[in-house]
Amino acid sequence: MRTTRSESPSRLDRVLCIFAEIHAGEGASAVILMGNVFFLLMAYYIIKPVREALILAGGGAEVKSYAAAGQALLLLGLVPAYSRLASRLPRLRLITAVTLFFVACLVVFYLLARLGVPLGVPFFLWVGIFNMMIIAQFWSFANDLYSPAEGKRLFAIIGFGASSGAVFGSFITGRLIEPLGVYQLMLLAAALLLVSLGLTFTADAHERRRRAGSITYPPSGSNRAEHTVAKPPADAEPLAKDNAFALLWRNRYLLLIALLMLLANWVNTTGEYLLGRVVSDSAAQAVAAGMAGGLSEADIIGKFYADFFSVVNLLSLVIQLFLVSRLIKYLGIRICLMLLPMIALGGYLLLAFFPVLAVIRWAKTAENATDYSLQNTVRNILFLPTNRTEKYKAKQAIDTLGVRIGDVLSALLVYAGTQWLALTTSGFALVNAALVLLWIVIAAAVGSRFVKLQYHNTDVA
Predict the structure, then answer these.
(1) Euclidean distance between CA atoms 11 and 14, whole angstroms
(2) Alpha-carbon distance 370 to 380, whole Å?
(3) Which residues contact 443 (CB under 8 A, 6 or more apart)?
(4) Do 36 and 134 share a domain, yes or no?
(5) pLDDT-based confidence at 103, cuts 50/70/90?
(6) What's the mean pLDDT in 421-442?
(7) Are residues 279 and 188 in the same domain?
(8) Which domain holds residue 207?
(9) Per the structure, how many domains does the chain have?
């Protein structure tokens, strides 16, 4: 059989081929979706400092910790509500309704703030829900547009929009807070959400036109899965009336993905605690020894994290742009799923024997940069061979509640380790290493099932 195309590669397609394998006509939609998620992440990183300012000024670090656990409880009710909404609305109307809801919330929060209403806890809870649900919904939409073979090639390009949006959002916020003020940033974030919604409609229309004028047949003797083009999604039809949690329980593949994300977040959050613990101890020791150069403990900690986040974000951008697509193409999803836990395992075992700042710093730098780039892309690719209902409902449950449960388990581990077990930094590192071993087992199982599904469901839209 032959492959026929209605168009030759555009200049944009050829430019993007530097970073990933792009077929004729695919570059435009990939860039549109990259811009879409860029604006979503930019909006989040603009309101993130607003969240921190309101919660810390209004209640302190303890209230912030309790509110983080409250987000998981709220999601227990919100995920089924989203599932019911998805059963009633077609895809674009669903995305529009959810996005406009979050835009309206930002406007209401702005008005309440101007009236002097305390917003610390409510806004903190809302941001945690917003961040999880709106990003999960975007990747559900991207999964809906592409076949597994297309997504494996194009998600690396789209994921660069998420990485760069986070970096640019953080950068611009630091320069806008003083001239605009904290509360005006809420309105800016709302405007960015509307831009992202417009790009959602643009991407959908472009893909429909492209697929209507292009028919692809696999070449003789080739692997059919690698040449399958997704059929245009049936947007006129709402999703099946399945409960999101019921989908997880009856589909072992989805349940394994949920466990994978839970363990990954549990390990990462506990690692963040260890980093903060070592940084705080080092800052206190520097001040006590008179080696702080006139800086306070807060100054030393702030300077450390500013440098740390800058290096992590820059490294993740480089990995996303130049390595992710090539790693996925040449190593495959199964091996790529194993890379982050292997990096984490090495880092925590090293920390267990050398619990010093230099070790935890570079271990967490490698872990976080890989998580924000390769791991983020791969975990969204995992949903490509699922059906449309699973893409929207099950993914929403996994990406939101699964992550938040990981946060809660990490908090319980920290509480037990500090209050009952008196764990040292080395002790926490060994516990994390044990969790990583379980993570590796789950990752291997998920990778194997993905490969089987990929070759049995090549026509998934």
Answers:
(1) 5
(2) 14
(3) 260, 337, 338, 341
(4) yes
(5) very high
(6) 96
(7) no
(8) 11-242
(9) 2
